[in-house]
Amino acid sequence: MPKILWMSPYSLHDISSGASIHCKTVLECLAKRGFEVWSCSSFIFDSPAGANVFNNLKDKIDSSKKSVFEIDDAGIHYIYTRSSSNFEQEQNLNDQELLFKVYCSVLDNFKPDFVMGFGTGMISMTSFAEAQRRGIVTIYPVLNGNHGNYAFPNTDLILTDSHASANLYFRRDQIRMIPTGQLFDPVYCISNKRKPKYITFINPSFEKGLSIFAKLAQYCQKAHPDLRFLVVNSHGNFAENIQYLHTKGNKDDHPLKPQDFDNVDMTPATNNMKPIYTVSKVLVTPSLWWESWGRVASEAVLNNIPVLGSTSGGLKEATFGAGIHLDAPEHCIKDNLSLPDDEEIKPWAQALERLVNEDWEQQLKHAQDNLSIDKNIDRLIAILRPYYERRYRDHVKFNHH
After folding, report:
1. Which of 131, 149, 166, 225 would bridge with 179, disulfide CB 3.0–4.6 Å?
2. Minimal CA–CA distance to 200: which of 224, 226, 239, 230?
């Protein structure tokens, strides 16, 4: 069966990165279908919380004399190289040279059919160039809307998750991408228990729509005092960040304080989302930036949780009709710290009331059918098959001559 190598400074174990979680799930699914999968990367994460899966990573690295660390996890063989920092922009020349040296050694020994990875830094571009020099097919997964000015050098196949993102890149940048959907392994994301009590918001960052969520929670204190809200502090902290939000039209007025939200509970970032979904009755995803898919929205739907979201990018594709999507106020999109006013938040509160009180079983079942992991992995393998079959034919022809 084909061999695929993940090559990127970014760790696939980054629990703070939806892109890393998506790619890790894809590779684990390919491993279950018979692909041989290796990963070559550094300990680079989107945020410090992303490294929590390793438990005291810095102490473990500092106490070791190793330059290279190898682990096996869920069918994937991981090779990690030591790095002086957990942030890509702080990697020094020695870090990059070590990673590239190890990567070339992996190419020699593993002999992959595909090299897959993301990252726009020099180490990523050089690695793709080396793969193509050796005749290896290169794959770049695009999971946001921010790569419009990137030329994707030395890339054979550009994949994205949603039709919305594929259309955006083609319309805006004349870049062709193939939408593949996202993959969700029930083992990792579906809770077998349901004790719904919270309206849940994951990642209280400004671009994820903190202003809309905070205003909604504040509005519901009077309109729906029976509702309780939960924030998962993955990127940022709810209690800290709400103090930066300002009144519409007045950047000097910061009306919100942590003590104003006695209807909001908080919980830290976690690599096990099942307990979160167990206690959630509605998920709120009011993103203000381009949301290529919305992984947590799909995970919620798979847990029989309807979604209240914005219309950003592929969020509607992520829920397949099992929720309500509203346009975010334009001033919030232009200034992510600007709070909606009472009139602008009313439609969100009304939609939330519908999601709490109406029966969404039929819509949820329809969405779950469309999110089937087998359907989506079949689609991806069908995209990859011509590449590895052609590579195999060329290999046989070369050896025959």
Report:
1. 166
2. 230
* C-alpha–C-alpha distance, residues 179 and 101, integer Å: 33
Q: Which residues of 245-265 are buried (b: 16+ CB within 10 A; e: fewer)?
A: bbebeeeeeeebeeeebebbe
Those residues whose C-beta lies under 8 Å from the C-beta of residue 339, and which sit 6 or more positions away, are 211, 214, 215, 245, 246, 247, 248, 255, 256, 332
Query: Considering the entire predicted model, what is its pTM?
Result: 0.86
Q: Give 207's Cβ-side CA count (13 Å radius).
A: 5
Q: Is 18 helix (H, G, I), strand (E, B) or coil?
A: helix
For residues 226 and 198, is the Cβ–Cβ distance under 8 A?
Answer: no
pLDDT at 398: 47
Find, among 187, 184, 181, the residue nearest to 164 by Cα: 181
- The C-alpha atoms of residue 259 and residue 133 are separated, in whole angstroms, by 59
- Select from 219, 259, 222, 228 the least CA-distant residue to 242: 259
Question: How many H helices and E strands in the chain?
Answer: 15, 14
d(Cα 107, Cα 145) in Å, to the nearest integer? 31
pLDDT tens digits, one per residue of 43-81: 999 888 888 888 888 888 888 889 999 999 999 999 999
**Whose CA is closest to 28, among 62, 92, 74?**
74
Distance CA 273, CA 283 (A): 13
